Amino acid sequence: MNFHRKPHTFIGQVDLKVSNLERSLAFYQYVIGFRVLEQSDGKAILTADGKTPLLSIEQPGQVSPKQPRTTGLYHFALLLPKRSDLARVLQHFIQHQIPLQGASDHLVSEALYLADPDGNGIEIYADRPSSSWAWANGQVVMDTRALDIRDLLQEGEGAQWDGLPAETLMGHIHLHVSSLQEAETFYGHGLGFDVVSRLGNQALFISTGRYHHHIGLNTWNGVGAPAPAENSAGLASFDIVFPDEEARKSAVRRLKAMGVTVHESQAAWITEDPSHNRIRLLI
């Protein structure tokens, strides 16, 4: 089942601020495997299929290093179409000695973790079939176990890595927030996502259509963590894509009824969550 198209609400393009565009472009092309869709002074839009924007990177004026212990990006997550694609990515990382921050079996998926040159977190993952996911009391069963590297590499079928597959999607985004309760109200009541997993009082996973998660939320940078400076490297904004105009209008009405500021700009509605993560609401 495809959880990243109608009738679901899902994550679209993610926009990052970086401290050195040339360095980041090299990383995202030759390490991650993106292609350049558009490029101008100080900004590039990246794609996997040559037509769909997945990631933008921009070097602001007087940019400062990514600030620790703030709200913002924990990681964005690229969803590959097949397990064999993940195996080829892993082989590529091993061959070029790319340092990883983690490699995990989450039961619903298998994932590799690393960071870009500015410390922006990246997950590259492949889902297990949704028919194999276990649910208990309305929550999907997830875990963090060591990834079976040998078994995964055998799935690579000896094929060479050739960048991101054209079918790669922005699978989910995981955010640092200052308050889980405020985040749950905003994303749940306001934007219409359902809670599908809780990790104590530290993390929350939400989705539509019973996906394991389109958005992760955590307070691992501290309850009450401040937002980063405007010119700090890190998350600039991200897109939430609604299935149709009525679904988006309903979300905008709910947000406004909650007292949240929402304004229209260039065919998108722009808002911020309670932790000042900027969001574009699209269809």
Automatic annotation (TrEMBL):
SUPFAM superfamilies: Glyoxalase/Bleomycin resistance protein/Dihydroxybiphenyl dioxygenase
Top-level taxon: Bacteria
InterPro entries, per the entry: Glyas_Bleomycin-R_OHBP_Dase (IPR029068), Glyas_Fos-R_dOase_dom (IPR004360), VOC_core (IPR037523)
Domain VOC, chain residue ranges per copy: 10-127, 169-283
Record-linked Gene3D superfamilies: 2,3-Dihydroxybiphenyl 1,2-Dioxygenase, domain 1
PANTHER family (alphabetical): CATECHOL-2,3-DIOXYGENASE (PTHR43279:SF1)
The protein's name: Glyoxalase
